[in-house]
Specification:
Layout (H helix, E strand, L loop, with lengths): L4 E7 L6 H9 L9 E7 L6 H9 L8 E5 L5 H11 L4 E6 L2 E3 L3 H11 L3 E12 L24 E2 L13 E4 H7 L18 H11 L3 E14 L6 H13 L1 H5 L8 H23 L6 H22 L17 H5 L2
Helix pairs in contact: 5-6, 7-10, 9-10
């Protein structure tokens, strides 16, 4: 009997985090009518991740097999690609090591995937659990920290909008990933010493480009635990700079190579317009930490092409892209 759904947990030195995810998976309900398993991908950890997983495996014997694999290449993109090559199930549910799924998350994910035959990926309803109070006006930044609450009804993400769900709580069709996402993308995710991110959006853009549907499913609920240090300027400012620096890669997935210079100029002009407006409103220096993060995002966006080119990211082999966003003006204005 084959496995219908694999829940993948990607972790780096998460020995003090992912056990809570495994505890939540031990309590899943309504999974009797399909077969599922868990795969923990150890992304080059130096802690006792392997030993912790071994200690849990016996507890999962009568629920769902718990597997382990080690991926030495650092970065979330490498860990997810490794998971896709390891599994034999038609669907993969990705959980970060700080994502706590609701008791029916696995069954809700499987049910929604079965009901939508063109589904390529599906994002969850994500609520935050802050270790400490966030700064004032933090709601303006919440979508960038994998906090997604888009209402109580399923929502289909449109191709003419540069809006996609985060990888936290993401369910993908294995076939869609294997057929659409290049083995070597530009972005690999945050690594020690680098806050460059956006690898999940790059992968999802390739899936959506091949006419697979990308959905938001509010029945799939997870809690994203956000520690104190991720709310401090020392973390947030480099984080938002990294999002900005990744934007050339995520924006150009759906643009034909011959047209990329024109799109690059259009995005640059639009980002510059937004930055000038931001400086006009807040000034060059501002004590507002949220405004500082927004400014760093825009500055990073302006520098994205030059940064990626200078550091060799754009030398990666990529698929030829043969289609454009349906609404060019809308795409540039995102």
């Amino acid at each position: 009997m084959g496995v219908d759904l694999t829940v993948v947990i990607c972790t780096y030195n998460g020995g003090n985090r992912f056990p809570q995810v495994l505890d939540a998976l031990l309590s899943q309900v309504n999974t009797q009518e399909f077969s599922w398993e868990i795969l923990l991908v150890d992304n080059n950890s130096t802690d006792n991740t392997a030993e912790i997983v071994k200690g849990y495996q016996k507890q999962f014997e009568k629920i769902a097999p718990l597997q382990y694999c080690f991926e030495p290449a650092q970065g979330a993109a490498h860990a997810r690609h490794r998971a896709v090559t390891e599994v034999n199930s038609p669907f993969i549910g990705f959980l970060d090591d700080d994502n706590i799924p609701a008791k029916n998350w696995v069954s809700a994910a499987y049910k929604f995937a079965q009901e939508n035959p063109k589904l390529g990926a599906c994002g969850s309803f994500i609520s935050p659990e802050f270790e400490s109070d966030p700064p004032p006006n933090f709601k303006r930044l919440m979508p960038f920290l994998a906090i997604t609450q888009r209402g109580s009804k399923p929502l289909l993400y449109r191709r003419d909008k540069n809006l996609l769900p985060p990888s936290a709580g993401l369910v993908v069709r294995t076939q869609a990933w294997r057929e659409s996402v290049p083995k070597q993308c530009i972005l690999s995710g945050r690594t020690p010493g680098s806050m460059l991110t956006g690898e999940d959006i790059e992968a999802l853009s390739y899936i959506q480009l091949q006419d697979w549907e990308v959905w938001y499913n509010p029945a799939m609920k997870i809690v994203h635990k956000i520690p104190r240090h991720r709310l401090e300027p020392e973390y947030l400012i480099p984080f938002f700079r990294g999002i900005g620096l990744s934007r050339y890669a995520t924006r150009m997935v759906r643009v034909k190579p011959i047209l990329r210079p024109g799109f690059t100029c259009g995005y640059f002009a639009n980002d510059l317009r937004k930055l000038i407006g931001h400086i006009w409103r807040y000034g060059i220096q501002t004590p507002d930490a949220i405004a500082t993060c927004e400014r760093e995002l825009l500055i990073g966006s302006l520098n994205s092409f030059f940064y990626l080119w200078r550091h060799g990211y754009l030398k990666q082999d990529r698929k030829n892209i043969n289609s454009l966003p349906e609404n060019v003006e809308t795409a540039i204005n995102q």
